[in-house]
Design a protein that fits this description.
The complex is a heterodimer of chains A (169) and B (290). Chain A has 169 residues and is mainly α. Chain A contains 6 helices and no strands. The chains are: A mainly alpha (169), B alpha+beta (290).
Chain lengths: 169, 290
Amino acid sequence: MVRRTLAIVAIMITAILLQSTVFSQIRLLGAKPELMYLVVIVLAVIEGPSEGAAVGFAGGMFQDFFLNQPKGITALTLTLLGYTVGLARQYIVSPSPLLPTTMVAGATFAGVLFYETVSFLLGTLEVAPVFFLRTAVFSALYTALLTPLVYPLLRRVFEGSRRRRVVRF
Amino acid sequence: MVVRPKPRSTRLLLVLLVSASLAVITVDYRQGPEGPLAGLGRTSLSMMAPLQRAVTTVTRPVGDFFVSIAHLPSLSRENRDLKDEVAGLRTVINGSIGQEIEADRLRNLLDLPNSIDFPLVNALVIGNGVSNFENVITIDRGSADGIAVDMPVVTGGDTGARLVGRVVAVIANAAEVMLITDRDAATAARLVDTRQAGLIQGRGDADMVMSFLKGGVAVEPGAVVETNGYQNGLYPPGVTIGEVSRFVPATGTSDPYVTVRPAVDFSALDYVAVVQKLPIDTGTLSGGQP
């Protein structure tokens, strides 16, 4: 359990570091990928809704605090996203290897739109709706493109550190 | 933690976490930039800064490589143009050295401040804002090096200093700089040729918008825009901001404005200099903006 938590924390820090250094330079059509979204969505796909929500919350808080953004909005977004993706995963039986990529694309799009809407309502973000949509589309695409590279790695970490199934009564 | 949680406990967890997020959002929203949550944010930022610095040092060449690939088609043309320009400028410089000496002498006589006559602190850009909506960079110098909020940040160019932005948050070993392209940034500016004053507002990655204090202007694309220093302005006067890319004439409902392309390529910013100048008497201004 401790090892797993440490592994997830390490992944989160790596995600934030890469997001704020490397990927802020390498942009796709002006958009950055959302690495923390990617981590949470992949974890939710593999582990289900409850861990999706918990890690989403932790990752969101991490990102909000470590990068000094408006606090709590990313946490709220990723909590809901982790839960929803984890729940949706249980009803999808497609064996397609593209499934994680598709889910990351869809979920990132929805998540970024949600984040933008909440920020807009709070008045921390004032931009045209077209820009909203454009950012959501491009960062979802970019994040989805990174999925095939990151998914196998994350999967190994998550499944390798999974607790043995011991049923206690 | 239970290995296979029942749906009920999962839903309870979700409700708990969502409530916690909402609580944090509310508290942060109500406290603004001075509250304990913001303080905590600054503390975590100071833990992150050294790591960011390390990663940047390692990955900067890789990033530069990709950036230069993206710019490749225009590079050779730019190179040729620049060589021509250098040849032309050399001649101009030779002519203007005499004038500069004379101007210096006169300035000293009049005791006027030079455009940037303040100590500069050089800093390395160690991180960029993570979201798609803010144009913010993190630099590796902080309050320990004498940097304070609202200090202007510039970068060198072959024609003098170019405006980058201003410091918006500072911790001991790092500071956050809001770029002039940020949607929240507003900069007092003027056209170099005609001295027409206006206000430049950031538009994210799109060109900035400059609106004028007085209507009835017609500006040609290519006109250079610089900072307009008032007595208590935020920026020193005469720092290059960029050049006009498009003139949008007045319509029935809106005044004419121009779009301004920044002189600095923010995607390839390595080193910047913080001007250790604070606006004189910000107390009379709301929000410290000129």
